[in-house]
Amino acid sequence: MAKNNTLTNKGKVDIDRDILLSIINLATKEISGVESLTNAYMSWFKRTFTKPKSEGVNIKFEGNNVLKIDVYIRVYAGVSVPDIAFRVQENIKNSLGSMVGIKPGKINVHVYGVNCDKVVGEE
Question: How far apart are CA 53 and CA 14, in angstroms?
Fold first, then answer.
């Protein structure tokens, strides 16, 4: 008779880096007031001659497999930057937790521009 070893043998789950980048990208764009993600933080040379994996998102695994996330965004004029940054952080944390079961360590939101063509609240 075969034994069911699912309780005693825990497997290993590998998640592709591109999947994490996509989840973070989508979670950021879902927030009202975020105009876009941007690679403005990169040098001109790097932006011109390399194709980044995901625009405006940088992830890094630090010690003890803690995920550090940096998100670079542009916002619309008329929004509260601290409020947008907090909502982006919370949405990324919740999305990663519910979709792939990862609890990130640090989530840094960098605002690299304001789109003044559309002012939020004046529609």
Answer: 18
